[in-house]
Amino acid sequence: MAKSLNKEFGPIMKEHMKYIADDAEKLLKVQAQVVEVKNIMMSNIDEVNH
Fold first, then answer.
1. Distance between CA atoms of residues 38 and 46, nearest Å
2. pLDDT at 47
């Protein structure tokens, strides 16, 4: 009986895990872009102050 639940629930769980993994990857890319922009802005501020 417990194994039958795996057959029904397994594909649904796999789909949800892929969706979450894709979103996590997108979030990491956006976070990297934010860090890059922040570093550029800090560099620009330093240049203006000197």
1. 12
2. 94
